[in-house]
Amino acid sequence: MDITVLFKLSYGLYVVGCMDGERPVGCTINTCFQVTSENPILAISLNKNNYTLEAIKRNPRFSLSILAEDSDPGVIGQFGFCSSRNVDKYADYGYDVVEGAPLVKGRFAGRLILDALNFIDGETHMVVLARLVDTVKGEGTPMTYDYYHRVVKGKAPKTAPTYVAERDEVKEAPKSAKRRYRCNLCGYVAEFEGEIPADYHCPICKVDATQFSSIS
Ligand SMILES: Cc1cc2nc3c(=O)[nH]c(=O)nc-3n(C[C@H](O)[C@H](O)[C@H](O)COP(=O)(O)O)c2cc1C
């Protein structure tokens, strides 16, 4: 079976946000669609290992921020390559709580406030059906998943439902005499003549040089 045909499916890119008690948590997703038109219900797909799913099971109110082509692409990596279990993903961006759900600050094409209604088992993932409660207008052209791969040159981790190794695997640079450093979050390997520069940032997930470990 030629699974590259799946690349022809189109998606957007979103940040899901949920209050886990007093703490905002959330993750990047590319899977969201509108299921019904009247009193709309939407569906998202969340990996069972994602902390955001645990939080939404406890607190059904969540937000969905729709990325625009000119949104800060760093937010995709920040929310998509590490877990709210051990990282405060909102620390660099800030957030507002709107109707009980956190909205990460920044430019987005729009925001939705939703209430989870139902969780449908999809083996590795749960499909979350959610009622639309409110909307917040935004600006910009919505970013498609294709734009993210083609223009932003972004990747997706294995927890994304649409992960494909040949497209999304972060390739290691060939071995050389240079020093090699691996990103602790997404696994990207960078090479330098000497020490990793202090102002270096991971091109995939945007974390700074302190998040890299020397591997040779
Ligand atoms: C471009 C992109 C798309 C993603 N799409 C999804 C998705 O649709 N569903 C999902 O569960 N995870 C998706 N992920 C992965 C989650 O964002 C990632 O596993 C995250 O670390 C989960 O964080 P959490 O543990 O705080 O919930 C995607 C990540 C990226 C970068």
Overview of this structure, please?
This protein is mainly β. The chain folds into two domains: 3-165, Pnp Oxidase, Chain A; 170-214, Single Sheet (Rubrerythrin, domain 2). The chain has helices spanning 51-58, 74-80, 145-150, 165-168, and strands at residues 14-20, 23-29, 32-34, 41-47, 61-66, 95-98, 101-104, 110-122, 125-137, 179-183, 189-192, 212-214. The longest helix has 8 residues, at 51-58. It is globular. Residues 25, 27-31, 45-47, 50-52, 76, 79-85, 148, 154, 156-157, 159-161 line the site of flavin mononucleotide.
Ligands bound, unique:
flavin mononucleotide
Number of strands: 12
Proportion of strand residues: 35-45%
- Tell me the distance between the termini: 39 Å
Pattern of helices and strands: EEEEHEHEEEEHHEEE
Largest sheet: 7 strands, antiparallel
> What is the C-alpha radius of gyration, as a whole number of Å?
18 Å
Count the DSSP helices: 4
Structural category is mainly beta
Q: How would you name the CATH homologous superfamily of the largest domain? A: Electron Transport, Fmn-binding Protein, Chain A
**Helix coverage percent:** 10-25%
CATH class of the largest domain: Mainly Beta
Mean pLDDT: 91
Report low-confidence residues grouped into runs of 5 or more.
none
Count of domain modules: 2
Task: Please provide a brief summary of the model.
With 216 residues, the protein is mainly beta.
Itemize the secondary structure elements and their pairings.
Elements: E1 14-20, E2 23-29, E3 32-34, E4 41-47, H1 51-58, E5 61-66, H2 74-80, E6 95-98, E7 101-104, E8 110-122, E9 125-137, H3 145-150, H4 165-168, E10 179-183, E11 189-192, E12 212-214
Antiparallel strand pairs: 1-2, 1-5, 3-4, 4-9, 5-8, 6-7, 8-9, 10-11, 10-12
The structure holds flavin mononucleotide (FMN).
